[in-house]
Automatic annotation (TrEMBL):
Keywords: DNA-binding, Transcription, Transcription regulation. It comes from Methylorubrum aminovorans. Gene3D superfamilies: 3.40.190.290, Winged helix-like DNA-binding domain superfamily/Winged helix DNA-binding domain (1.10.10.10). This is HTH-type transcriptional regulator HdfR. Residues 1-60 form the HTH lysR-type domain. Pfam families: HTH_1 (PF00126), LysR_substrate (PF03466). The lineage of its organism: Bacteria, Pseudomonadati, Pseudomonadota, Alphaproteobacteria, Hyphomicrobiales. It comes from the Bacteria. Belongs to the LysR transcriptional regulatory family.
Length: 295
């Protein structure tokens, strides 16, 4: 039977430390276990590996050769580990990213172009979804989400606050007290936007309901009605005007999230660092403050 790697490690530990007890302590085994294993190896090889003296264990020529072989093997293992670690530090491979459609078009897409320019070995699969995909099942590797309460099983970064305000067409009436509204339906964000609109207009004044926030901006621009929009988008469109200040009850938080098992993966870490750096100068616009620039 060939001698296995663990027995090489045992022989080297005994040679380096001069005895069974310190070698066993180093390997995390009992001295009696170390004694039995050494006896079994010597029997298998048909050669004594150590001379037993009162001062300790002294390797024989066969023991020295086996300890030297163990040292070479350990060095090869260490070299392999370094090579794998170096490769792992280079972002590469498939990265699956999910975000809502509005975040993709308004924020994420310009960032993806610049990310790819830096990391040519990373291929991106972008999953546009209004629903929160299950990162634990690896439906995606990274999620860009606007939420007040990110899932507790994910880790990530808080990128900033997303302010919302009421917008109308730039050429609309000066007094919009009796204007029609466009609104996301009750199915969106737990009914947050629908409740906001309902508190300001009766159901007969809601001209259009949408089952997502996608299309809100276009509907307002076309004069269908006034309605809520994220400030980073509404403020940069010449055909719109802001009718209110940021509405605290609509404010959300932008998160970049991943599963704990993926947070140290090079491609995930590189992407999260990149997006965080890109979002930083956009915060004034996201928060509805004058002077913010867009993506």
């Amino acid at each position: 039977m060939p001698v296995v790697w663990d027995e090489f490690r045992l022989v080297r530990a005994i040679a380096d430390r001069g005895g069974l007890a310190p070698a066993a302590a180093h390997l995390g085994i009992n001295p009696s276990t170390a004694f039995r294993r050494l006896a079994a190896v010597e029997a298998e090889l048909g050669a004594r590996l150590f001379e037993r003296h009162r001062s300790g264990y002294v390797p024989t020529p066969a023991g020295e050769a086996m300890a030297a072989a163990a040292a070479r093997m350990e060095e090869e293992v260490a070299r392999f580990d370094r090579e794998v670690a170096d490769r792992a530090q280079t972002p590469s491979g498939l990265l699956r990213v999910t975000a809502a459609a509005t975040l993709v078009t308004d924020l994420l897409m310009p960032m993806l172009g610049r990310f790819r320019a830096r990391f040519r070995q990373v291929q991106i699969e972008l999953i546009t979804s209004e629903e929160a995909l299950n990162l634990s099942r690896r439906d995606a590797d990274v999620a860009l989400r606007a939420t007040r309460e990110p899932p507790s099983n994910l880790v990530g970064r808080r990128l900033g606050t997303i302010a919302w305000a009421v917008y109308g067409p730039a050429q609309g009436k000066a007094d919009d007290a009796d204007a029609d509204w466009v609104s996301p339906s009750e199915a969106v964000a737990g009914g947050l936007f629908a409740r906001f609109v309902a508190a300001r207009a009766g159901p007969e004044r809601v001209a259009l309901r949408l089952n997502s926030v996608q299309g809100l901006c276009e509907a307002i621009c076309e004069g269908v009605g006034i309605g809520p929009l994220p400030c980073y988008r509404g403020d940069r469109i010449a055909g719109l005007r802001r009718l209110s200040g940021p509405e605290p009850e609509l404010a959300g938080t932008l998160w970049l999230l991943t599963h704990p098992d993926l947070r140290h993966a090079a491609r995930v870490r590189a992407f999260m660092d990149h997006v965080a750096a890109e979002v930083a100068p956009l915060r004034p616009a996201m928060e509805g403050r004058a002077g913010g620039r867009s993506a």
